[in-house]
Structure formats: C-alpha cells, structure tokens
From TrEMBL:
Residues 13-138 form the Response regulatory domain. The modification 4-aspartylphosphate is found at D63. InterPro entries: CheY-like_superfamily, NreC/VraR/RcsB-like_REC, Sig_transdc_resp-reg_C-effctor, Sig_transdc_resp-reg_receiver, Tscrpt_reg_LuxR_C, WalR-like. It holds the Pfam family GerE. This is Response regulator. It comes from Nonomuraea purpurea. SMART domains: HTH_LUXR, REC. Transmembrane segments: none annotated.
C-alpha cells in the first residue's frame, strides 16, 4: 500500500516531536510504513529546533503541549522554525480542540511565512491512518489541513455578523470540506452530489466572502483563512 501511495511522488522528509515516547515512536513507524522518510524524533522544542537547524525536513509534526510547561511550546517552536525556514511545513497535533492556538497557526504564522503548509489535527485522527497520511503530504506540498472538529468548534463560536454566517447549510458543508483539503471531486463524493453542484457552491462561497479571482491568490486557501481568522 505504501508503494502505491508514494509511487511517482517525492519521498517526503518528516520530523516528529512529542514528549510521549510511545506516541512519538508509534507515529514515526506508521509514517515510515507509508513511505515517508522520518529523519528525526524529538521529545521537546529545544531538541526539535536543534534537529531542524542541522537538517531541515519538509514537514515537522509537532504536539502543541510539550515540556517544560506543557502549554503552547509546539506553536511557539513552530513559529520560530518557520521564521528561519519559510518553506517548512508544520502539522500540529493536539489532544483537544484549541481554537486560539489554531487561529495563531493559520493566521499569524501564515502572514509571516513563505510557502510552507500548515495543519491542525486532533491526535484521535492518527487512528484514521489514511487521513493522517493525506494531511502530512498536503502540508508538505504547501497546503492547509484543518481537523473537522476544529471547523465545527469555530462555527459554533460565531457571534457577530460576518460573511460566513450568510452561507447556506450546504455551502458551509462545502467550506468545511475545503478546510480539510478536499478537492471538488472528493467533496462531491462525500456529499453525494455532482461536481458541477460543488463548483456552484464554491463560486457562491467566493462571492459571499468577496474573494475576487486574481493570478496571485489561491481563493480556496483565502476562503478557509477568512473563516479561521474569525
């Protein structure tokens, strides 16, 4: 299966940082079995920083809460690493839905960094290996990955008037699937509708969020960011 996944694709280089030995080693083994080149493991932010400085990978997979304070070391080290390596992809794993950290990951870090991808997944997602593998690869290719549980939490937090609130239920569903990094074809299969229907929903989302077509901007990414920034 890993051969089918990686056939014709670059062997993506990954580092994993988590203070739990079992989780760290287990995740590294799963990624290796799926064809990724896991070139470094770290138990804390300082160790990860040292590894990245010596040999920058394509993606770092990092826990939000690590020693010594177990608060936001993962986000902080990700910000510092991205400042020195703008093309570095960062996939943050968390035990819980923490919207304020997610907003920092997608907003502040995105504005200050280059082409590296960003992602936020719950650790429970690791049990769904295909989702995890797709997420790591998408981040490594410069894309965005947002856990569906985070999308739901952000939607529930809406209190003031904003364009996202004006979306229909179907449009919000499409936007949520876009936030997961799904293509129009994949969204159509998930929603059991035609690709043309999805394309119409996507156009409506762009219109409601006032995202004009330009040569320089990716409107799918901008739509997700407009949603996350609130």
């Amino acid at each position: 299966m890993s051969g089918q996944l990686m056939e014709g694709r670059k062997c993506m280089r990954v580092m994993v940082a988590d203070d739990s030995l079992l989780f760290r080693e287990g995740l590294a083994r799963l990624l290796t079995e799926r064809g990724f080149d896991v070139i470094g493991l770290a138990c804390d932010a300082a160790w990860l920083t040292s590894l990245v400085r010596r040999d920058p990978p394509d993606v770092v997979v990092v826990d939000i809460r690590m020693p010594p304070t177990h608060t936001a070391e993962g986000i902080e080290v990700a910000r510092e690493l991205r400042a020195g390596h703008p093309e570095l992809g960062v996939l943050v794993l968390s035990q819980y839905v923490e919207t304020h950290y997610a907003a920092e990951l997608f907003d502040e870090m995105g504005a200050a960094s280059g082409g590296g991808g960003r992602g936020y997944l719950l650790k429970d997602r690791v049990s769904r290996l295909d989702d995890l593998v797709a997420g790591v690869r998408r981040v490594g290719e410069g894309g965005l990955v947002v856990d569906p549980a985070l999308v739901d939490a952000l939607m529930r937090r809406r209190r003031t008037r904003d364009p996202v609130k004006e979306l229909t239920d179907r449009e919000r569903q499409v936007l949520a699937l876009m936030a997961e990094g799904r293509t129009n074809t994949a969204i159509a299969k998930t929603m059991n509708v035609t690709v043309k229907t999805v394309e119409a929903h996507v156009r409506n989302i762009f219109d409601r969020l006032d995202l004009a077509l330009t040569e320089d901007d990716n409107r799918r990414v901008l739509a997700v960011l407009a949603f996350l920034r609130r």
